[in-house]
């Protein structure tokens, strides 16, 4: 299909969407705050995983004002397990700006939305079109794939120039019901025009209009340049039970999982004698030391290969780590076991080292 005839997809696509769309809370009630929060949660995360988080988040922080005033630890707790925690921090920062500059009402124009922290071209387009009905494109990975296949576009969709070209092509054909159209394109990509050889062309309302289907290129489109390999890091995680609770510490304010609570952990895979030497250096009297099952955690650019040790300390004084920078661990806080659930948002990478309950 030539781009000039891309407009032919509109009617069959909207009919299909009206009949097949999934009921979703932010779709049933597309108020701007709901659409915004859902779009941020859906970045890098599947709909099924987002649903319970969305309900909990909205129940706890029902509007922009509540989000802007949210306690940081509570916010992280609500986000715990969703990953990519900077998304939550940016949500709060943006909410504070919306309170200060827009009287608590999210702006409708994509250009104004894009100025808020954490809102890029796609999210701005999604909120502006879905919540406010503006005729602006919202091109995510699903839409890139659908349009590249429909038009037989063989350019690398990871390139910004290709993304912009596809965005412009979509922008030219958005009908009056921009909210339904943009969601329909995304929904088609999520349910039918699936990636990695799983496209369900037989169930697609656009089969007769699709260049990739016609030319037998569904398996090879869209074109994506190979990603850089992830850096692998070996780390040792410590579950330390002291008389006053479980040791947790805060990550640095910048970088991976910035500012979140974590179990103490160090670079490399520490042996039993090395963990005992560490405990000695910290001034911790050891009652017992046991190995925990190893784990792997994959981030966008880094892959952690983790081993764990469970360290039980004897009763008696537990010396705080030296505050002179010589300590191998950052400052420790002793959390009561219940507080790990209620107060400290520990990222998923560490939670597999929590002992089984009971
Ligand atoms: S016909 Fe197949 S490749 Fe083309 S848009 Fe539909 S599902 Fe995607």
Count of helical regions: 16
**How many domains in all?**
2
Look at the structure and give the CATH class of the largest domain: Mainly Alpha
Q: Helices and strands: which structural class? A: alpha+beta
The share of residues in helices is: 40-55%
Q: What is the fold-level CATH name, i.e. the topology of the largest domain?
A: Endonuclease III, domain 1
Describe it.
With 358 residues, the protein is an alpha+beta fold. The chain folds into 2 domains: 3-220, Orthogonal Bundle (Endonuclease III, domain 1), CATH 1.10.340.30; 231-351, Nucleoside Triphosphate Pyrophosphohydrolase (Alpha-Beta Complex), CATH 3.90.79. It is built from 16 helices and 7 strands. The protein has helices at 10-20, 25-28, 32-42, 47-60, 64-68, 72-79, 86-102, 110-114, 121-131, 141-151, 160-173, 178-191, 211-214, 272-282, 337-342, 348-351; strands at 231-242, 245-250, 261-262, 265-267, 286-298, 302-313, 333-335. Strands 1, 2, 3, 4, 5, 6 and 7 form a 7-stranded mixed beta sheet that branches. A hairpin with a 2-residue loop joins strand 1 and strand 2. Helix 3 (32-42) packs antiparallel against helix 9 and helix 10 crosses helix 12. The protein binds iron/sulfur cluster. The site of iron/sulfur cluster has 14 residues, from helix 10 and helix 13. The site of iron/sulfur cluster (SF4) has 14 residues, from helix 10 and helix 13.
Describe, in short, the structure shown.
With 358 residues, this protein is of the alpha+beta class. Helices cover 42% and strands 14% of the residues.
